[in-house]
């Protein structure tokens, strides 16, 4: 029986690929993707990146087929005018919206219904010239706050900010055409608040989630918080391993406030809403 995804839920499917690329998974990557996708994978310079791309597409096809009775091989995709991927065929299932991300050792796919969604994941790694990148890509206050952190926290905070901004841009489907410095996040020890420059959006219209699915990976999810969702008292983020279909509830969120709200503290697999 197909899985149900109510309007107030977001489903995130993930797969850790470090040391886990079994012959079976590799064969799926070749069997379930189209000739065009196989050709696209060849553009990546390394075998690891080629396999990561194919597995991400395999994850997408397999996950979408968990919600409707259609073979993973039957899906076709297209990009909109801004380059955002979306379902092309079957047309009747275009109510399923998705966002896909893959980085070193990790793949994830977020799914929602009848509204756009964005997900971004990054491996936490050492970055040279982190201040220079922050000055160029972040709001001035974000860059200043980053400099005040001890070295052991700066790398993580950098990737928290980066994934949150990227998730928002992917949900909007506009790539890097919106300046990252106009999407501002502010964090203290207990919580993180966000705001969007009035010239690009209203912060009351968005919700953000941050999670750490593995020891060395961060992921962020962004989605519109519109009338389609506001009729529900709570929002739920369900995170599921690609190898299984077990739902794990990791948190709920109250109605949006003007300044927005954010789950920035991981509590052994469960996020607690902050007021």
Write the SSE topology:
Elements: E1 9-16, H1 23-31, H2 35-41, H3 47-64, E2 76-79, E3 85-89, E4 96-103, E5 106-113, E6 118-123, H4 130-137, H5 140-147, H6 151-172, E7 183-187, E8 192-196, E9 206-214, E10 217-224, H7 227-230, E11 235-241, E12 248-253, E13 262-263, E14 266-267, E15 270-271
The quaternary structure here is: single chain
Report the principal-axis shape.
Answer: globular
**What is the CATH superfamily label of the domain at 120-271?**
4'-phosphopantetheinyl transferase domain
CATH topology of the domain at 120-271: Ribosomal Protein L22, Chain A
Strand content: 25-35%
Discrete helix count: 7
N-to-C SSE string, H for helix and E for strand: EHHHEEEEEHHHEEEEHEEEEE
CATH architecture of the domain at 120-271: Alpha-Beta Complex
Mind telling me the CATH class of the domain at 120-271? Alpha Beta
For the biggest sheet, the summary is: 5 strands, mixed
Q: Which percent bin holds the helix content?
A: 25-40%
Terminal residue distance:
38 Å
- Give the neighbour order of strands across the main sheet: 4-5-1-11-12
Number of strands: 15
Provide the residue-averaged pLDDT: 78
Low-confidence stretches: 245-275
Backbone structural class = alpha+beta
Question: How does this structure look, described?
Answer:
This protein has 275 residues and is α+β, with helices and mostly antiparallel strands. It has a domain at 120-271: Ribosomal Protein L22, Chain A. Helix content is 28%, strand content 31%. It has helices at 23-31, 35-41, 47-64, 130-137, 140-147, 151-172, 227-230, and strands at 9-16, 76-79, 85-89, 96-103, 106-113, 118-123, 183-187, 192-196, 206-214, 217-224, 235-241, 248-253, 262-263, 266-267, 270-271. The protein has a 5-stranded mixed β-sheet with strand order 4-5-1-11-12, covered by helices on one side. Strands 6-10-9-13 form a 4-stranded mixed β-sheet. A hairpin with a 5-residue loop joins β2 and β3 (85-89). The longest helix is centred in the middle third of the chain and has 22 residues, at 151-172. The chain is globular, with a radius of gyration of 18 Å.
């Amino acid at each position: 029986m197909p899985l149900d995804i109510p309007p107030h839920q977001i489903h995130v499917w993930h797969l850790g690929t470090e040391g886990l690329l079994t012959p079976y998974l590799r064969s799926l990557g070749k069997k379930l993707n189209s000739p065009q996708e196989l050709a696209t994978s060849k553009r990546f310079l390394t075998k690891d990146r080629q396999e990561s791309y194919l597995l991400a597409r395999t994850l997408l096809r397999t996950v979408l087929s968990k919600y409707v009775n259609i073979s993973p091989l039957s899906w076709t995709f297209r990009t909109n005018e801004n380059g955002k991927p979306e379902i092309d065929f079957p047309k009747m299932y275009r109510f399923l919206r998705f966002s896909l991300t893959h980085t070193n050792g990790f793949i994830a796919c977020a799914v929602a219904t009848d509204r756009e969604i964005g997900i971004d994941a990054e491996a936490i790694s050492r970055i040279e010239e982190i201040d220079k990148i922050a000055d160029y890509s972040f709001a001035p206050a974000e860059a200043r706050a980053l400099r005040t952190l001890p070295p052991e926290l700066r790398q993580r905070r950098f990737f928290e900010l980066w994934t949150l901004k990227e998730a928002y841009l992917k949900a909007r489907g506009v790539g890097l055409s919106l300046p990252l410095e106009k999407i501002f996040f502010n964090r203290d020890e207990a919580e993180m608040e966000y705001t969007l420059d009035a010239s690009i959006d209203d912060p009351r219209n968005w919700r953000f989630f941050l999670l750490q699915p593995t020891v060395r990976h961060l992921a962020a999810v962004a989605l519109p918080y519109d009338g389609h969702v506001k009729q529900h008292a709570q929002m739920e983020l369900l995170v599921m391993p690609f190898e299984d279909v077990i739902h794990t509830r990791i948190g709920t969120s109250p109605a949006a406030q003007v300044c927005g709200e954010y789950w920035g503290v991981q509590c052994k697999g469960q996020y607690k809403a902050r007021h």
